[in-house]
Prior knowledge:
The protein is of the alpha/beta class. The protein has 11 helices and 21 strands. The chain has helices spanning 26-37, 62-69, 107-115, 123-136, 149-161, 197-203, 261-267, 337-343, 348-356, 392-411, 497-506; strands spanning 2-4, 13-22, 42-45, 83-85, 139-140, 170-171, 207-209, 212-219, 225-234, 239-254, 288-292, 316-317, 323-325, 328-332, 361-368, 375-378, 384-387, 416-418, 426-427, 448-450, 480-482.
Amino acid sequence: xxxxxxxxxxxxxxxxxxxxxxxxxxxxxxxxxxxxxxxxxxxxxxxxxxxxxxxxxxxxxxxxxxxxxxxxxxxxxxxxxxxxxxxxxxxxxxxxxxxxxxxxxxxxxxxxxxxxxxxxxxxxxxxxxxxxxxxxxxxxxxxxxxxxxxxxxxxxxxxxxxxxxxxxxxxxxxxxxxxxxxxxxxxxxxxxxxxxxxxxxxxxxxxxxxxxxxxxxxxxxxxxxxxxxxxxxxxxxxxxxxxxxxxxxxxxxxxxxxxxxxxxxxxxxxxxxxxxxxxxxxxxxxxxxxxxxxxxxxxxxxxxxxxxxxxxxxxxxxxxxxxxxxxxxxxxxxxxxxxxxxxxxxxxxxxxxxxxxxxxxxxxxxxxxxxxxxxxxxxxxxxxxxxxxxxxxxxxxxxxxxxxxxxxxxxxxxxxxxxxxxxxxxxxxxxxxxxxxxxxxxxxxxxxxxxxxxxxxxxxxxxxxxxxxxxxxxxxxxxxxxxxxxxxxxxxxxxxxxxxxxxxxxx
Length: 507
Ligand SMILES: Cc1cc2nc3c(=O)[nH]c(=O)nc-3n(C[C@H](O)[C@H](O)[C@H](O)COP(=O)(O)OP(=O)(O)OC[C@H]3O[C@@H](n4cnc5c(N)ncnc54)[C@H](O)[C@@H]3O)c2cc1C
Ligand code: SF4
């Protein structure tokens, strides 16, 4: 097993391999493992650090772990502060801090993607791949012992409202219910890539370089990808250490995640005749609402979202084509006390009261299946700009989701609800829910989490309207393949990790 960390690299290196994979998240680790097990000589390069429970790297402290495993320490936003860019920066990528919710691509969405130009990724192709992934990651529905009080209240509220309740399949093994999924699991229970497909890749002879950032993909004289230029990152300062690594490879696989793969493409000045690189930037923005209850909830205990409702996954339109409701998944929310304290608004005595009653605060969160994409591009100094504006039907979905969250929290017994906006808007009774139609949630008035980036290197069979072919190979760059959600033509309508892995198996 070969893991080279930044501190191990004391001089510039020149390496070669059959395949170099950029990124070690769900997309990169899955394809790297598949290729190494098939006998290829594979190097996987990861910008972030290599962290293990054996070395005691996971200390369950939100502040420490944000610095270790989260990109930008969890502080990056779009320029208008409407979305928080949530991504991993470590071996295993975002799967190290994810919640473990694991969905298959719904058949209606696989059919839609076919209509949008994809081939070879249909429902029948994907189903057996999902079976295998679910076996590998022990994906299963949890029993009631894993429901924290917020999960129980979610079901109580949903039942009162007549909504369908659907347990969320979870990627866990021997979970202790510590509630620290977002900080990375200290018990190796959550089946992140770091403890599943990355070790399988290493066992199959793969070589992993951590703390190594790919600066550019290079091309040969015929315009085909032939390797990558990298810099070694000093983990303490998060800056280049001064060492460089050149990797020659017959195949380059770009799997740096939905926020970063288009950035590497643009920085490498790769061809973009379709004009689609960086366009169609989708991110599943997350409107969240908090409820104050009479009883202790301790939302930070046990697994985050063992339950939820899929009743609103697909949007409904009336006969005139106007939006009515839906277009999102709805779940119980979970935040650790440090982060909950930071996102809740307020000052002075009122805020002090709120903090003293922190255990009694619960919440609900939605993943919006956004349709109107933003744009990722480079500014004059080569830094990425994540342009994203809530608008049109996406804005209607956000407001509808917040109203459903309020309905649910009140039905579950909340005394009042709090919107995490700068003004600290309170919804004092179900009669006030209509306020959520008017309150400002744009232009940074509320910072919405954006954990599921996708769409900016769109897949399709037509090179005029897409960046990569259904084989995952770039239309205009032979030997360059993309294996992450950048290839999704539109949102998957559910959490994407299992779908990203399945697409990587096909790639
Ligand atoms: C808080 C949170 C909770 C989530 N919960 C769920 C959930 O419950 N279920 C679900 O399905 N999804 C969930 N997600 C989303 C899911 O985790 C991600 O969609 C998925 O893990 C992304 O995989 P990926 O391989 O596309 O990208 P990533 O995991 O981002 O992997 C890309 C990797 O590439 C590395 N990289 C980037 N640039 C470079 C470079 N230049 N050189 C070298 N390496 C580079 C990055 O450091 C990163 O490790 C959650 C996300 C967040 C933020
Ligand atoms: S809740 Fe389970 S999976 Fe999540 S961090 Fe705790 S032990 Fe790990």
